[in-house]
Amino acid sequence: ATPTSIMVGTGKAAENGILFKGGEHLEQTHQLNTIVLDKTGTITKGKPEVTDFTGDNEILRLLASAEKGSEHPLAEAIVAYATEQDINLLEVTSFDAIPGQGIKAIIQNKEILVGNRKLLDGYNVDINGEEGSLSEYEAEGKTAMMIAIDQRFEGIVAVADTIKETAAEAIKLIQDEGLEVIMLTGDNTRTAKAIARQVGVDSVIAEVLPEEKAEKIKELQSQRKKVAMVGDGVNDAPALAIADIGIAIGTGTEVAIEAADVTILGGELLLIPKAIKISHATIKNIK
Ligand code: ADP
Ligand code: MG
Q: Which family does the entry's similarity section mention (predicted)?
């Protein structure tokens, strides 16, 4: 590989908004055969909105007050929804985030749980009657969370995120370059599959805990795959670091950008097939 052609390649990439940290990453991009995309904030805009809520205003007040302590995009959506309805929030005595599951808060001596099946199951809340509603929301690609107060089920809040306009086209172009495209998410399988169908990925790995994302990349690598990970969140950082190529979304967190080898400006997914194309053109010229 001549240093000059690599410089020309990374220069051309930079002009397009693809920032390689070093020339070696352009060469590694040429070798890729698998690309793993985080869902929230990568395939979707990461700005979810509440679409459905089954409780009354008092439940909403407790729900939103509890979520106020969370920095998760799901929490932001719920707090924004309550604010729009002029709901005043209550003071929170204690707050805990349970990664990949939800949150727990104490408000006015009541224990508030908000999260997925795993969370409520873990606290012995009876959610047997709710499976039908949950599945319906999930089949629509929504993330459905349940609220329990003092271990009693009180309602469902469903949130939907908008898929980026160019996601399906970008994924098609990556596939045209001969790569397999996989979606990786902590969200539940049914929701993930509904989104996957809309954007045309080859397969889905769902219900992955934040700390397990890197493990999933390693598994793919052990199947002799050359893997790029694309992500935006703090919880994507270890996976970005361990992948053969880590690609951070420019609109994502600083931690993700630091852990990655490449950053694509503005979160434009079309820059991913573009980067692959530039790497192929550059390496071909070297040979
Ligand atoms: P993602 O990979 O989509 O960012 P996470 O691992 O952050 O997913 O979260 C997985 C699941 O845990 C969510 O789909 C949701 O059901 C639940 N969850 C996470 N954070 C919260 C929260 N603040 N409130 C309610 N539920 C949450
Ligand atoms: Mg994300």
A: Belongs to the cation transport ATPase (P-type) (TC 3.A.3) family. Type IB subfamily.
